[in-house]
């Protein structure tokens, strides 16, 4: 085959991911050219400060702070600088000039994805983003291509490595949230400001992207329900362990069947949840990620691996780069995503799952019946009840600890139960309310 002209690649960013992309592009130049049928020529690397210390493998002569001419002269632009601006403007410039773009920027895709996809479609350019969700794990391409003929019903993922590391340490060592976070920071998993991870903003962005692909529906970030892991206690973790569960931060994207008004749609939520220790996601330890997909014909699939890391994420970026380059060589249109299904994104009240509620009650006749009645009043069916009686410090009255497991119920019903329990004279305190997933 006659070799195509060299393809000009502009790299925006030379940090953890970008420096590895540059190194791999240069070190593997001949092999990549053979695979693509054209040389991938790294023509420049835009950074904020050309004098900053860089990883070995980043050629200093390619560094520039002037991104625009680099973008306009490229065939393919790789954006690994992160943030919203100027990344958004640069990607739009690249797409509008007909270049394909590879990005790892989940924050930008989750907040401005529609604008970027529309721009790409208008000029017939392509936007690739395998690295934006779960780092090295191939999950975007399976959803976009391999499962394009199937119907995805549910995705349940551990898509944030930092929080999985923290929860795993709490589970395996009995550590408190604070000390597990300190460990994650010392190891470089958590950033100096860990908010994006521990408050689940990062996982919510990834959930929005996964749901968009799975359900062919635009998913605005503000419709993704989000709860972080900061309130998870060592006591909750120990109780979960005793009951055969583990607590994980899960990103859940699922179809919700019609309610009594005939309204169906999808629910996208990120929160800590109990899952049974036998569930494949329970075996995801440390900072690893995994995405569990349930599709109508394919059944259950699990994708597992490194969700972050410079070189691991660079692997996904390079995969996209090769796809983009092959399209240049072969010509013709690339992948086009669609939001044709346009399903309603339902509020968290419509989520339908199981719950475990732990209560402190006075150990007196009739208390259990009163508690059971509160659940019944709101049509929430109890599946299990466990009771332990302990003398409360300094109190003459014994206190009973009730752990109530429910059958599936809507979040709205469960909230009504919790509100009624909080108002009940029989309930001294509600010590834990947590969803149970992974049936
Ligand atoms: P990083 O280490 O902070 O590197 C960012 C790079 O972009 C730096 O080289 C920086 O230049 C450059 N940059 C930032 N703002 C710029 C601007 N205004 N103009 C020109 N250059 C600018 O980030 P990263 O960890 O590599 O992450 C890059 C992207 O990949 C992000 O979207 C992130 O969400 C995504 N991602 C990262 C990982 C991971 O494990 N790190 C995993 C998955 C996805 P200077 O070097 O001069 O400061
Ligand atoms: N902070 C993210 C994590 C990095 O912990 O998974 C990749 O998005």
Short description:
This protein is of the alpha/beta class and 439 residues long.
Q: How big a fraction of the residues is strand? A: 25-35%
The name of the CATH architecture of the largest domain is 2-Layer Sandwich
CATH superfamily of the largest domain: Dihydrodipicolinate Reductase, domain 2
Q: What is the average of the pLDDT values? A: 95
Structure overview:
By secondary structure, this protein is of the alpha/beta class. The protein has 3 domains: 7-135 and 311-330, Rossmann fold (3-Layer(aba) Sandwich); 141-307, Dihydrodipicolinate Reductase, domain 2 (2-Layer Sandwich); 351-436, 2-Layer Sandwich (Alpha-Beta Plaits). It contains 14 helices and 17 strands. The strands form 2 sheets. Strands 7, 8, 9, 10, 11, 12, 13, 14, 15, 16 and 17 form an 11-stranded mixed β-sheet that branches. It has a 6-stranded parallel β-sheet with strand order 3-2-1-4-5-6, sandwiched between helices. Strand 11 (288-295) and strand 12 (299-306) form a beta hairpin. Helix 1 (16-27) crosses helix 12, helix 7 (161-173) crosses helix 8 and helix 13 packs antiparallel against helix 14. The longest helix has 21 residues, at 310-330. The chain is elongated. The termini are far apart. The model has no long low-confidence stretch (mean pLDDT 95). The structure holds NADP nicotinamide-adenine-dinucleotide phosphate and L-homoserine (HSE). NADP nicotinamide-adenine-dinucleotide phosphate is lined by residues 13-18, 46-49, 52, 67, 80-82, 86, 104-106, 131, 135, 308-310, 313.
């Amino acid at each position: 085959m006659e070799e195509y002209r060299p393809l000009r690649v502009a790299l925006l960013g030379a940090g953890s991911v970008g420096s590895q992309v540059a190194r791999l592009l240069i070190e593997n130049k001949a092999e990549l050219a053979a695979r693509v049928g054209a040389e991938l020529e790294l023509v420049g690397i835009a950074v904020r400060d050309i004098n900053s210390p860089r990883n070995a493998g980043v050629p200093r002569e390619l560094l520039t702070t002037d991104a625009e001419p680099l973008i306009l002269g490229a065939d393919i632009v790789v954006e690994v600088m992160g943030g919203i601006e100027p990344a958004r403007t640069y990607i739009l410039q690249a797409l509008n000039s007909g270049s394909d773009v590879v990005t790892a920027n989940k924050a930008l895709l989750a907040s401005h994805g529609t604008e970027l996809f529309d721009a790409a479609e208008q000029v017939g350019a392509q936007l690739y983003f395998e690295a934006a969700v779960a780092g090295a794990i191939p999950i975007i391409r399976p959803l976009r291509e391999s499962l394009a003929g199937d119907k995805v019903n549910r995705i349940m993922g551990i898509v944030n490595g930092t929080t999985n590391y923290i929860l795993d340490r709490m589970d395996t060592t009995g550590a408190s949230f604070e000390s597990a976070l300190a460990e994650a920071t010392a190891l470089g998993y958590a950033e100096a400001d860990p908010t994006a991870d521990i408050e689940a903003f990062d996982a919510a962005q990834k959930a929005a992207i996964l749901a968009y692909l799975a359900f062919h529906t635009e998913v605005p970030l503000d419709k993704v329900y989000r709860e972080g892991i900061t309130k998870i206690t060592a006591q909750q973790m120990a109780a979960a362990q005793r009951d055969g569960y583990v607590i994980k931060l899960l990103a859940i994207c699922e179809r919700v069947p019609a309610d009594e008004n005939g309204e169906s749609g999808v629910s996208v939520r990120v929160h800590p949840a109990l899952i049974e220790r036998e569930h494949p996601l329970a075996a995801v330890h440390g900072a690893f990620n995994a995405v569990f997909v349930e599709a109508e014909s394919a059944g259950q699939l699990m994708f597992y691996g490194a969700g972050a890391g410079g070189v691991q994420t660079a692997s996904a970026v390079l995969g996209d780069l090769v796809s983009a380059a092959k399209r240049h060589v072969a010509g013709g249109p690339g992948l086009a995503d669609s939001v044709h299904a346009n399903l309603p994104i339902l509020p968290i009240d419509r989520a339908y799952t199981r719950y475990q509620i732990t209560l402190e009650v006075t150990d007196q006749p009739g208390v259990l019946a009163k508690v059971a009645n509160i659940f019944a009043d709101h049509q929430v069916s109890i599946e299990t009840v466990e009771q332990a009686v302990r003398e409360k410090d300094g109190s003459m009255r014994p206190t009973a600890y009730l752990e109530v497991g429910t059958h599936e119920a809507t979040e709205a019903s469960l909230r009504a139960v919790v509100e009624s329990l909080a108002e009940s004279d029989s309930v001294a305190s509600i010590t834990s309310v947590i969803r149970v997933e992974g049936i």
